[in-house]
Amino acid sequence: MREITLSQAVNEAIAEEMRRDPTVFLMGEDVAEAGTPFKVLSGLVEEFGTERVIDTPISEPGFVGLAVGAAMTGARPVVDLMFGDFLYLVMDQLCNQAAKQHYMSGGKLTVPMVLRTNLGATRRSAAQHSQSLQALVAHIPGLKIAMPSSAYEAKGLMKTAIRDNNPVVIFEDKLMYQDKAPVPEEEYLIPFGEAHIKREGSDITLIATSSMVQVAGKAAEMLAAEGIEAEVIDPRTIVPLDEKTLLDSVRKTSRAIVIDEGHQSYGVTAEIASRLNEKAFYHLDAPVLRMGAMDVPVPFSPALEDLTVPTPESVVENARRLCAGELIHAA
Amino acid sequence: MYRQMVRIRTFEDNANQLYLSAKMPGLTHMYSGEEAVAVGICEALTDDDRITSTHRGHGHCVAKGAEFKAMFCELLGKAEGYCRGKGGSMHIADQSHGNLGANAIVGGSMGIATGSALRAKLLGHDDVTVCFFGDGATAQGLWYEVMNMAALWKLPVIYACENNGYSEYTKTEEIAAGSITARAEAFGIEAHKVDGQDVLAVNELTQKLVARARKGEGPFFIELETYRYHGHHVGDINRAYYRSKDEEKDWKDNRDPIVRFRGWLVSEGIASEEEIEAMNAEIETDASEAVAYAEKAAYPPAHEVDMHVYAD
Amino acid sequence: MPHDVTMPQLGMAQDAGRIVAWLKAPGEAVAKGDALFEVETDKATMEVEAQTGGYLTGISANEGDDVPVGAVIARISETAEDEAGTPAAASAPEPEPEPEPEAGAALPEGKAVTMPQLGMAQDSGLLVGWLKTPGEAADDLLFEVETDKSTMEVPAGLDGYLAATLAEAGEEVPVGQAVAVISAEKPEAPLSRSAKNAGARPAQGAVPEPAAASAPKTKDPAPEKARAPQAAPPGGRILASPKARRLALEQGLDLGRLAEAGHPQPFHVADLEALRALPDPAAAPATSASASSRRLTATVASDGLPGFVAWAAEAHGLKDADAILAGFAGASLNPGGAATVAIERPGARRAFTVPPGRALSAVAETGDAPALVLRDLRGTALSGVEMGAEEAPVLTLTHAGGGLTITLECAASGLDAAGAIRLLTDFAGRMEQPLRHLL
């Protein structure tokens, strides 16, 4: 099978959907000739023209608002938000308007839009360009949240997102754009709400999102050398969340670590860990652990920045201790 | 047009009563006094044309063709309301007539209106979108962002600023520096000012601008000078501290849009006093029946609480 | 149609207003928009306008009154006279009131039938099924109960009609809790209830019940079915993972033993292996029995029975020595009442019913289960016994020199201390001087 980069996968997905459905269009800062600073969207304006690939001024609330209105009246916008950190700017349009229109209108209005943005630190971009804010939007009823962990996921989830009639926020890890993975030539979609077991194991479950899937995968290899077989699961979408796959795994292994690049406190890991606790309590032989980014704004200095995110080594350390019956944050 | 104005006034009187008699949950915002704005503009639009509304949205809703029954049901949170009781007064929307909804966030629907216009241009539709907002919303950054884009891309949207002199409890001149029309003009948007209590003037202007917008000459901006008789919301009853009773009386006695238009219709021989009285009475009955119906109507069943969070 | 005039909602937090003054008089004509009355709010005094034209009638609130928002205080009618009837109370449209939770129906009068104590260690019974339906005559057998040994049919024990069943088939009911009400007359409204609603007593003449009113345990965690109670660990809490606890419970393992053995906590699933490897606790039924059983011994200098038996055979034709022995034992156990006594010798057992009174001739063999066992080991070499409690109290006779040792053993619940002492004393007395029995 051919291997393409995550960037190419996203590009293909959007291009295919724009060919398939004339109401799909792209808007955002520098999306046209520049193809965004990450060059993910290069080539699209050549094929679809400036009518459908629209460069906007630097008005995040404005153009997200426009996307909401266009979506409410029959178009299917894909909005590019250059950095996930800018989510704060668009919260009213996204969370007060887009997320709620369907409900507030008693089901009569829909907002079929996709907000494409990114997450991930360790790029030396400092505190305001390195945040992973999926927890912020996952909390809001009415939004769906997808987190592709490779080129394969990126293409399949993007196509599903564009065809979904709800507002969807997709987070891509900005450090993964050049990472390659096998991606079929034939069309495929990845449904929302279906987790994927990346590696099977019976001693401990590692649930990881986005680039943390790679971290968990490496940790699993290292643990195997010590005789601990880890099961690695990628939820793919955190809203809707495939609880069943996660619970089945925990019932099998009786131990779990949830890894996400949002901050350690009050995040995605807390929600998933809590559900495992509630629903698989009597199958747990160890407390469910959360591993997120440190609760600090992302520092600039490389010496400091790399300390703030989960690494394969830190995952291995925690897994090893859990399997040995240690309480990691003993009370 | 007269009928529509009277319908709005009657609706608001009834809604106010529902609030005062503690039958209506929550708060609402009365449009009484501003009827000519909504009616003058909406009478120049078709059902395909869209509008976005504000928290003071009953007037726009009625003017764009909504039915009393479904409106009262929505205000009371009943299942037969326009939004199945889930939106209430501040989020009332009526798809079938192109009303994209009232919005509780000041300026919250400016992006939506402009987006609707973007869609029209993109998909080659010829409908126009009118964005209603108040003088208070001119303080919201979003307006400047969307006006910029509307002007850049020549979108078929008309921004209609209902300047009633007050932003909640504060005079407009204390919250808006400079000129409101100049703000639109700064983006190269053609701006007009009109007496919002003169329904004929409003309508005539709107018709011209809508026709031009359909041809791609948009966007446009209209500032309409008007007045709201009631307080900011129905509970804002003791308001002498920010607005004098004399001023209120002056607008009511001397500049009421309904009285004015009625006088004109009679003097032009278009309708007689008797016909007008009869119409008024008919509308009153219509409204009372709708209120009674809504009061008796059923609430949405409990299982609907988590429906419509997501579309299928 | 008269229009209600109500106290308006004047502020968001306001729920009442004070009427300062009426501006129109009763019966006066009013036009729509006229000021009707003045209301004082916490901020200012306001005038309230008439919403319609007509005549002001039916004023029901006066100057100075505090009136709740929404209450009707007057009407505007078509004529100056009060319309008939009091003004309709203005009421906010209410959502469908929740249907009242069903109040428990009152129980019919009658006597209660309770879940019987069916075994010494049993504290609840599973009601398998009803053999009569409510309303039927309660003769014969009423319901079936499953114990850990078998299924038993329970009679009402009273004459009358089954007026109410207070537990459903399949429910576990604590011993002593009422399961049915028997009424003297045929009930008009017999009812059936579930044991979960237990708590109400029948209206009259309930058999006094021990205080077991709690519903059967329903709170076990969902997947768990095992109910083996664990012995409380000595000295405080055991730390163990949820899975370890669950597996221990399911497999009948006692984490307390692991704690006692000093195994480091918290326990995980892997530690259950260590628990399984622990030696069995020493079997000491006697020691555990001794905490809950009784053993008394008596010695008599001479065994009077053989002489008495000989005399009885000759003088009264009573040839069955065992029957006489049973009669002595039965009379000692239950003076004035009947008893079933079994006489046991190595290899043979015979049971006798001993009727009330002392007539030894009336003692007859029976197949019933005995309430007292007499183990006659006089013919053996055994001189003393310590056997532990059995199902029924046991009197064991062993020779002691020329006389007898009589050992009484029973469970603490079988006989209380006074009863055990009396039984042994009376029986020993009879064995020494049998003629006493006839007195």
From the structure above, extract its key features.
heterotrimer, B: 312 residues, alpha/beta, Rossmann fold, five-stranded parallel β-sheet, two-stranded antiparallel sheet, 11 helices, globular, C: alpha+beta, seven-stranded mixed β-sheet, 28% strand, elongated
Describe the structure.
The complex is a heterotrimer of chains A (331), B (312) and C (439). By secondary structure, chain A is of the alpha/beta class. Chain A folds into two domains: 3-182, Rossmann fold; 196-323, Rossmann fold, CATH 3.40.50.920. Chain A has helices spanning 6-20, 44-52, 60-72, 91-104, 134-138, 151-163, 212-225, 243-253, 268-280, 302-305, 312-323, and strands at 3-5, 24-28, 53-55, 76-80, 114-119, 144-146, 168-173, 180-182, 196-199, 204-208, 230-234, 237-239, 256-263, 289-293. In chain A, strand 6, helix 6 and strand 7 (168-173) form a beta-alpha-beta unit. Chain A is globular and about 60 Å long. The model of chain A has no long low-confidence stretch (mean pLDDT 95). Chain B has a five-stranded parallel β-sheet, with helices on both faces. A two-stranded antiparallel ribbon of chain B has the order 4-5. The radius of gyration of chain B is 19 Å and the shape is globular. Chain B has one domain (2-302): Rossmann fold. Chain C has helices at residues 242-250, 255-260, 271-277, 285-292, 305-316, 321-333, 417-432, and strands spanning 3-6, 16-22, 29-30, 35-40, 45-49, 54-57, 66-68, 72-77, 111-114, 124-130, 141-146, 151-155, 161-165, 172-174, 178-183, 191-192, 293-300, 339-345, 348-354, 364-366, 372-376, 394-400, 403-411. Chain C starts with a strand and ends in a 7-residue tail after the last helix. Chains in contact: A-B, A-C, B-C. The interface between A and B is large, with 45 and 46 residues.
CATH architectural arrangement of the largest domain in chain A: 3-Layer(aba) Sandwich
**What Rg of chain A is obtained from the alpha carbons, in whole angstroms?**
20 Å
How widely separated are the two ends of chain A?
50 Å
Oligomer description: heterotrimer
CATH class of the largest domain in chain A: Alpha Beta
By CATH reckoning, the class of chain B would read Alpha Beta
Low-confidence stretches of chain A: none
Number of helices of chain A: 11
**Overall 3D shape of chain B:** globular
Major beta sheet summary of chain A: 7 strands, mixed
How many individual helices of chain B?
A: 11
